[in-house]
Amino acid sequence: TQLLEQSPQFLSIQEGENLTVYCNSSSVFSSLQWYRQEPGEGPVLLVTVVTGGEVKKLKRLTFQFGDARKDSSLHITAAQPGDTGLYLCAGAQAGGTSYGKLTFGQGTILTVHP
Amino acid sequence: EPEVTQTPSHQVTQMGQEVILRCVPISNHLYFYWYRQILGQKVEFLVSFYNNEISEKSEIFDDQFSVERPDGSNFTLKIRSTKLEDSAMYFCASSDILVPELHTDTQYFGPGTRLTVL
After folding, report:
1. Are B94 and B113 in contact (CB under 8 A)?
2. CA-based nearest distance A113→chain B, Å
3. Residue B35 and residue A102: Cβ atoms within 8 Å?
4. Residue A82 sits in which domain range?
5. Chain A stretch 29-68, residues whose beta carbon is closer than 8 A to a beta carbon of chain B
6. Average pLDDT over chain B, rounded to whole?
7. pLDDT band, very low/low/confident/very high, at B21 (cuts 50, 70, 90)
């Protein structure tokens, strides 16, 4: 059974601060996806990282995939109240008997105070 | 921008009743998935579907569950006899081709159906 441990579970910071969310696993993933989910809605894709060591930037958000493709991080610079929400990481395995099933982390609830 | 749609947004049913949750995946996608999220818990994989058959299913997806692609656009999840513990948000997702190197195994999620079993 694959597990993806996401931390921290809760993060409460002031506007302008930086933060990092981590996802760690003992399993290798073919890709890792970061989603943001609003209450009562479906996960909305932020980014997919595929290559070990890959870094992707989306405005103030920086995503990194570990060299061994077992871990990933999301770094937000100068957080704003609009960043408040639930952030999810999800690892995909493809090939062999797997058809892209996603394993999700527990999620990080981020609150950015004005 | 193409998106996955799901209906209904909220379904309330009595224990033991059958429910069908409907999804319209993104039109050129080939792989379809159902996930569920019990309140306060992780999103959990239920089943994947490709080429008109189930390709993988989790332990949760027992004989009470079935999936079908009855036509070229819809993808349904049926729960034959609902239990209280089936209450959850059910998400449909789709992806185009599983070629990770081309970044094309990304799954796009629908808004979900909230199932409440009384």
Report:
1. no
2. 23
3. yes
4. 5-113
5. 30-31, 33, 35, 40-45, 48, 50
6. 91
7. very high
Q: Which residue has the tokens 């990481």?
A: A89
Nearest one of A9, A17, A34, A27 to A112, comparing CA atoms: A17
Chain A residues 68-97 within an 8 A CB cutoff of chain B: 88, 90, 92, 94-95, 97
Nearest to B46 by CA among B101, B91, B5: B91
pLDDT at A72: 96
Q: What is the mean pLDDT of each run of 10 residues along chain A (114 residues)?
A: 89 97 92 91 92 94 95 97 95 68 94 96
Q: What are the Cα distances from residue A69, in Å, to A26, A31, B4, B117?
A: 10, 8, 28, 39
In this prediction, residues B74-85 reach a mean pLDDT of 96
A102, B107 contact by CB (below 8 A):
yes
Which tokens in the block code for residue B110?
Answer: 């629908």
Q: Which domains does chain B have, with CATH numbers?
A: 5-112 (2.60.40.10)
Give the count of domains, chain A: 1
Q: Select from B3, B105, B115, B116 the residue whose CB has the most chain A CBs within 10 Å, as the one to mutate to test that interface.
A: B105
